[in-house]
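Hi R.,

As promised, here are both runs. First protein below:
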Amino acid sequence: MGAVWVYAELGAEGPLPSALELLTKAGVQVDYYDPYVAVLPLNGKTLRRRPLTPQLLRAVDCVAILTDHSTVDYARVVRHARKVFDARNATAHVRRERDKIITL
């Protein structure tokens, strides 16, 4: 299983590091995207930001949006993703393919 994280909260605190730590400990392969953070330390390793491309979005099992960011085109994310877990209601404006979106 893989996951891409659309993430915009800077620093070591916040939802992303905790969520990634839990998922990697459970054996989930994770990737992340952040327009401002190119490198993220995690469990003694270094994750590098992946480009948010249609190919990557199609390749992963789920896209998790933990913090919304105004520079991300969420309609494009939904269009190319298999499933989207949206914890921030960032996809509220997306009208097509709502069946792919899981919200809190």
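And here is the second one, sequence first, then its structure tokens:
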Amino acid sequence: MTRSGIQTILRELQVTQTGVVASAGETTFYGLLPAFQDLETGETHLSLDADGGLATTHLPHGLPASWVTQRDEQGQIVAVKASIIAGYLRGGRFFSHEEWVARGCDA
């Protein structure tokens, strides 16, 4: 997945069921933690900020090296395996963005 592909996924994840952009606070309000999952293995990792803390939005920092397929000159992740998807963790369960939207907001 290319840098533009990562940016597109991250933008799409911010769109809610009504098409309104969701803020990081809204996903946190519903108990959702931004995360990534490898569809090949089922392995899931929370989204981390540059300092290693939990991120309030989907960031590629801290993804396992085995998921990364390309970095830029500064070492920033610009591509990951095609099997990596972004979604959310809630109550120990991973939800893709589509799964969460389909179930509706149930705070």
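A quick note on the second one: Residues 3-103 form one domain. Let me know what you think.

Best,
J.
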